[in-house]
Amino acid sequence: IVGRVEVAVIYSVGLLEMDSYIRCFESLYPRAKVHLEFLHPDEVYSKILNGEADFGIVSFPKDGGEIGCIPWQEQKMELAVCPRHRFAHRHFIDWEDLSGVDFIGFTKELRIRRMIDRWLKKAGVSIRVSHEFDNIENIKRAVEIGSGVAILPARTIQSEVDAGSIRGISLNGEQRFRPLGIVHKRNKSLSSAALKLVEMLREG
Q1: Alpha carbon distance 156, 92 (integer Å)
Q2: What per-residue confidence (pLDDT) applies to 23?
Q3: pLDDT digits over 148-167, tens only?
Q4: pLDDT tens sequence across 49-85
Q5: Which region holds residue 60: left if phi is over 0, alpha if psi is between -120 and 50, else beta?
Q6: Cβ pair 182, 55 in contact under 8 A
Q7: FRET partner for 40 with CA separation of 20 to 30 A, picked from 2, 13, 14, 178?
Q8: Is 132 exposed, middle or buried (0-12, 13-18, 19+ CB in 10 A)?
Q9: Contact of 60 with 115, CB cutoff 8 Å
């Protein structure tokens, strides 16, 4: 197993999520190297279609046409609030309780924003979007300073929850998840090194 594996990853997966996989992979296969690039979802797909990345990792992945998808993770969504928020003492919250709150959302072109809007609409919830960002890191910073609440994958706020700068609150009712998928160019064969890395990611 030799060679360089180019991987394009959305920002919200994060280096921390990938680091243990990469270190384990390069320890097992010292003649193989992994290069990670963190990008906007549209840029991940562009890198794959242009042949600049062996595969990518995105949320709510496409699967069709030139893009193939291998399912990877289902990440539970939670409400993220700052420790001073009136919801901060709660362990569970009903969707209906979110009506009228200041909400920090993803920008409208992102599929995760459209899915969250759909979930809120299904629950009959009307929120006030106070800020919009195209990445989770900025959303988390806005939550920490009390600009509003956000619905985010629980795994992405774990370090802030451990540090006490964000509280994660479970949403009652139907559980919602963010799917992550490994996307690749359908008519392009992956190298042996890329296939081994995909296999390691899937084994968790």
Answers
A1: 18
A2: 93
A3: 999 999 999 999 999 999 99
A4: 999 999 999 999 988 999 999 999 999 999 999 999 9
A5: left
A6: yes
A7: 2
A8: middle
A9: yes
* Amino acid code (one letter) for 113: R
Are the C-beta atoms of 72 and 87 separated by less than 8 Å? no
In terms of Cβ atoms closer than 10 Å to its own Cβ (0-12, 13-18, 19+), residue 30 is: exposed
Predicted confidence (pLDDT) per residue in 110-135, tens digit: 889 999 999 999 999 998 999 999 88
For 13, residues 6+ apart whose C-beta sits below 8 A from its C-beta are 38, 57, 180
The percent helix, strand, coil of the chain (3-state, each to 5) is: 35, 35, 30
Element (H, E) at 137: helix 136-144
Please determine, for residue 172, whether its predicted confidence score (pLDDT) is greater than 80: yes
DSSP states of 11-27: GGGHHHHHHHHHHHHHH
Structure tokens at 47: 């890198």
From the DSSP assignment, how many helices (H) and strands (E) are in the chain? 6, 10
